[in-house]
């Protein structure tokens, strides 16, 4: 897929939205000294091009009682079991991310849990999925970096 052409105004709009997706277009237009209609048209253009894919909500999982994070590497009996295993993994709401990977694991998942007992129950659910040979778990002690903005600026500099 070819890279989309974004200009400096598009970059500035994305820069504002990446900090807060709920900023009204009128606020963006005032900050950038352009019309709200221009902001709307440019955001729509970026949505249509697939650059902007929805918007997200950042939750404080600790305040919600889900501060325990584990990463689970999944070994499958056969590579051909991957798609069905992913369908089964997707049924477990506590698995928030899953990647098909090369190397040691067939699938690598991020799990959010209440505590170690809850994490154990989730890992056992994964272990019970047909085709799963075994799992290997790593516990996150702290999420130290979670910054999409630095990557976004790096990408802009390459364009």
H and E order: HHHEHEEHEH
Mean pLDDT: 92
Can you tell me the number of structural domains?
Answer: 2
CATH topology of the largest domain: Alpha-Beta Plaits
CATH top level of the largest domain? Alpha Beta
Widest sheet: strand ordering: 2-3-1-4
- How would you sum up the major sheet? 4 strands, antiparallel
List the uncertain runs: none
* Secondary structure: number of strands: 4
Structure, explained:
The chain is α+β, with helices and mostly antiparallel strands. The protein has two domains: 8-57, Orthogonal Bundle (Arc Repressor Mutant, subunit A), CATH 1.10.10; 68-140, Lrp/AsnC effector binding domain/regulation of amino acid metabolism (RAM) domain (Alpha-Beta Plaits, 2-Layer Sandwich). The chain contains six helices and four strands, in the order αααβαββαβα. Strands 2-3-1-4 form a four-stranded antiparallel β-sheet, covered by helices on one side. α1 packs antiparallel against α6 (148-158) and α2 (25-32) packs across α3 (36-48). The longest helix has 13 residues, at 36-48. The two termini are 15 Å apart. 15% of the residues are buried.
């Amino acid at each position: 897929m070819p890279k989309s052409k974004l200009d400096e105004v598009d970059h500035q709009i994305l820069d504002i939205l990446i900090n807060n997706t709920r900023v009204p277009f009128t606020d963006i237009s005032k900050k950038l000294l352009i019309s709200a209609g221009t902001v709307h048209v440019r955001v729509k253009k970026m949505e249509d091009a697939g650059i902007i894919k929805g918007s997200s909500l950042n939750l404080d999982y600790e305040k919600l009682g889900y501060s325990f994070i584990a990463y689970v590497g999944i070994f499958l009996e056969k590579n051909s079991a991957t798609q069905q295993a992913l369908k089964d993994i997707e049924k477990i709401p506590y698995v928030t991310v899953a990647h098909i990977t090369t190397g040691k694991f067939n699938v690598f998942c991020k799990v959010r849990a209440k505590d170690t007992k809850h994490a154990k129950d989730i890992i056992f659910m994964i272990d019970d999925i047909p085709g799963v040979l075994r799992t290997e778990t790593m516990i996150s002690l702290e999420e130290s970096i979670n910054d999409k903005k630095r990557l976004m600026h790096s990408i802009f500099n390459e364009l």
